[in-house]
Amino acid sequence: MTRLVLSLLFFLALAVGVGFLLSGDDYFDWPIATALFAFAVVGELLRSWLRRRSGKNSARQSSGI
């Protein structure tokens, strides 16, 4: 759980930084920042789902000994 929180905080800071850098004359570029952060959240959820799924498969295979 700690890894998830740290990873999302890192990507939130990265998205805010990119939003400020790409804003130009505006104060902040919300669509780019929210899209980057949403992409990071989906990636982290996909990573945790794949890790859980592979753990269940390896537990089934190793218990047949």
Please report the number of helical segments.
2
For the secondary structure, the number of strands is 0
| Rg result | 18 Å
Give the helix/strand class.
mainly alpha
Uncertain residue ranges: none
Which geometry do the CA atoms define? elongated
N→C terminal distance: 32 Å
H and E string? HH
Structure description:
This protein is mostly helical and 65 residues long. Helix content is 82%, strand content 0%. The protein is built from two helices and no strands. The model has no long low-confidence stretch (mean pLDDT 85). The protein is elongated. Keywords: Membrane, Transmembrane, Transmembrane helix. This is DUF4175 domain-containing protein. The chain crosses the membrane at residues 27-46.
SSE blueprint and pairings:
Layout: H1 2-21, H2 30-62
Question: Could you give a quick summary of the protein structure above?
Answer:
The protein is mainly α. Helices cover about 80% and strands about 0% of the residues.
